Amino acid sequence: MRNPNFIGRLMNMILLCWTVLLLGFVVTVFWQSKSSAERLAYNDARASIRKDIAYRKWAASHGGVYVPISEHTPANPYLSHLPNRDVITNDGQHLTLMNPAYILSQVTQDYAEYYGTKGHLTSLQPLNPKNAPDLWEIKALNEMARTFTEYSELTDIDGEKFIRVLEPMVVIEGCLKCHAKQGYQVGDLRGGISASIPIASYYEDAFDKLAYVGTFFVVLWLIGVAAICHYKTRARKYLQEKQNDVEQYLFSLVDMIEGRDSYTAGHTKRVADYCVRIAKALDICEEQIEQLRRAAMLHDIGKIATPDSILLKPARLSKAEFSIIQQHATSGFQLLNRIDTFADIAGIVQAHHERYDGKGYPNGLKGDEIPQLAQIMAIADAFDAMTTDRIYKGRKSVQESLLEIERLAGEQFNPLYAEVAVKALSTVELSETNQAPKNTTERQRLAYFYNDQLTGLYNREYLRVQLAVEQGSSLQLGRENIQYAAAIYLKNFSNYNRAQGWESGDQLLVEISTQLSDRLTSALLFRLHGDDFLVLSPQALDFDTLKEILNRLTNNTCVRYEFEQFELSNEQCHSVESLEAYMDRQSATLS
């Protein structure tokens, strides 16, 4: 599948749905339990009010009740208008009248102390100020006067939750004994009887039962999670194995390329490291960082289609050769795009040589047309190229390379990414990375490009490396180590070839080369123009040694020779072209 994280996201979505489903059940049960607790408290409050109403009706039907006067039950001063409020029995007891309101007030007060349920007889026009309504009761009485029905609400009393219910209290015949003077008539709304029950205990009971239900749901959820995780692991393992198989195949191809080109081996890994550094500094998500890392590891895989003669050339490429190697970006895209697992990085690989100003390849994309991750890789790729020794040039330091990236910001690179990259790569520690031959195979490959096929001496291209103005190549000895140059001109060699045959001429050249190499061990020897030789040496050459060798080998032949020695700092040694032009003039003069 095109997105290797598809299985993970799918299973995560299933897990999320499973969690939301069970969480929905838990929330539903929770609210049902909460509502049931509140309904139960409401019913208990109504039952308490019904009890109070029954007391009131009983007391009213008897015109009140006479009880002994005591500290707990003093004479009611608000009944002083009644002529028979206080009486003395035949046996001398002093009794006082408790009207229904007085009885109900005392009962509800005692009940609240014993059981926590608060009752209150209240009215907007109370005889007794103790029966005056609080703020909630005022609101409830006003609403009840409008609807003539009970009023209930869940509210706070002193910071504690209570369910409060207020039922209307209608004037009956027995009420007129005390309240007739207030102008009430039978059937009028006198006030209300309220009950306030703390709901905390009801919640506790409900939630205790809910704990068992919650435990069941947790166990059920864990079973579901275990099943989902199990199948997620199996699916990801299968997908990972499939992806690993393909990756191993492609990485094997990369190894083949690295086996052909020792520079590319470390290059891909370093570019991947630099890409990750820049991406993290840009605060890119982990998924994209991994995508970028994979792309960096395979960004040069298209070079598998590049001819060895170009890929392995340890020198600057010609315009035609560079045009051919540019095709590796498209070749890599075509290869990766055919594989579902790598299709997501194919576009990054294709665009990693595009330039921000549109002058890159293969499609000439510019600015935001270039994929974001490809823009990052372009900086990392260029940074590694600048900080790596090549045969034809030396590497730059980290600081020099970062200054170059800053200079190219807005032209070759995205200016924002370039700015971040300069900071992210400033701590890079360079290791020894160059293309100098490390083993027999690499030395043989180097010889293929830089050695004369007949004599084994160095050729014109290697001389170009040594004379390059840009010092620092991994193969350059340095001007301080090759201060002298000596030219050896063989004359009449074409006549020798005609007289003795080309094979004899080749053999003579090989013998001369072998003898010179054996005697001049600290010098570099080059064969130029077929029958001319050049020696680069750290010290002036002993011409007697050269004469001894050449006299012995050219004796009894028509071949003649001439020597010329000069310092490498001379103008004619600034380049291969200038040196060849000078030697041609000298050869013609000596002839």
TrEMBL record:
SUPFAM superfamilies associated with the record: HD-domain/PDEase-like, Nucleotide cyclase
Organism domain of life: Bacteria
Domain GGDEF per the UniProt entry, residue ranges: 484-591
Keyword terms: Membrane, Transmembrane, Transmembrane helix
Domain HD-GYP: 242-437
Molecular function as annotated in GO: phosphoric diester hydrolase activity
Residues covered by the HD domain: 264-386
Signal peptide as annotated in the record: none
Residues annotated as transmembrane: 210-231
InterPro entries to which the protein is assigned, alphabetical: Cyclic_di-GMP/3'3'-cGAMP_PDE, GGDEF_dom, HD/PDEase_dom, HD_domain, HD_GYP_dom, HDIG_dom, Nucleotide_cyclase, Rev_trsase/Diguanyl_cyclase
NCBIfam families: HDIG
PANTHER family on file: CYCLIC DI-GMP PHOSPHODIESTERASE TM_0186-RELATED, LIPOPROTEIN
Protein name: DUF3365 domain-containing protein
